[in-house]
């Protein structure tokens, strides 16, 4: 359901258009949305294929891929760690505690910002969701091709 602001913006956009222009614009928007959805789906499939390929490799091959990712990224550890994560090398011992703590911090940020705008908190909150992405291999932030987390009982 569009908001009042969106309705006003649409009204302004369409006010000077002929019916043919409106139809052409709506066709373009529909085509664009379809292309974006297809691109997102293709990225998700490619990411899953990458995970499947890495999980099928031997440990030695995964280590080689990790070293290559590390050196190709100018020695930024994030791509190398992602290779390890996709390959299934995730430390599970403290994972539940880490995920629980990150979720607690996000809830604390939400409470702190209720009714107030605290500079930097939205960015920090997003960064915490990215930490959850990395820890769980799921898409909590909305920025990764990973599958969305199961939204059953919240911990």
Describe how the helices and strands are arranged.
Layout: H1 4-15, H2 19-56, H3 59-72, H4 77-86, H5 95-113, H6 121-136
Fold and architecture overview:
With 155 residues, the protein is mainly α. The chain has 3 domains: 1-54; 57-89; 92-155, no CATH class. The protein is built from 6 helices and no strands. The protein is flat, with a radius of gyration of 21 Å.
Q: Which labels suit this protein?
A:
mainly alpha; 155 residues; 6 helices
Fraction of residues in H or I helices: over 70%
Strand content range: under 5%
Number of domains: 3
Sum up the overall morphology in one term: flat
Number of strands: 0
Please mark out the parts with pLDDT under 50 across 5 or more consecutive residues, or reply none: none
């Amino acid at each position: 359901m569009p908001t009042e602001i969106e309705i006003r913006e649409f009204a302004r956009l369409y006010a000077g258009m002929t019916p043919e222009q409106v139809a052409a614009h709506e066709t373009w928007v529909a085509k664009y949305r379809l292309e974006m959805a297809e691109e997102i789906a293709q990225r998700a499939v490619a990411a899953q294929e990458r995970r499947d390929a890495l999980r099928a490799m031997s440990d030695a091959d995964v280590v080689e891929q990790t070293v290559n990712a590390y050196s190709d990224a100018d020695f930024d550890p994030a791509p190398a760690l992602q290779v390890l994560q996709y390959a299934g090398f995730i430390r599970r011992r403290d994972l539940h505690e880490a995920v629980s703590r990150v979720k607690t911090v996000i809830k604390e940020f939400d409470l702190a910002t209720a009714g107030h705008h605290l500079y930097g908190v939205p960015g920090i909150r997003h960064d915490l969701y990215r930490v959850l992405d990395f820890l769980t291999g799921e898409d909590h932030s909305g920025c990764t091709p990973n599958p969305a987390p199961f939204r059953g009982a919240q911990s």
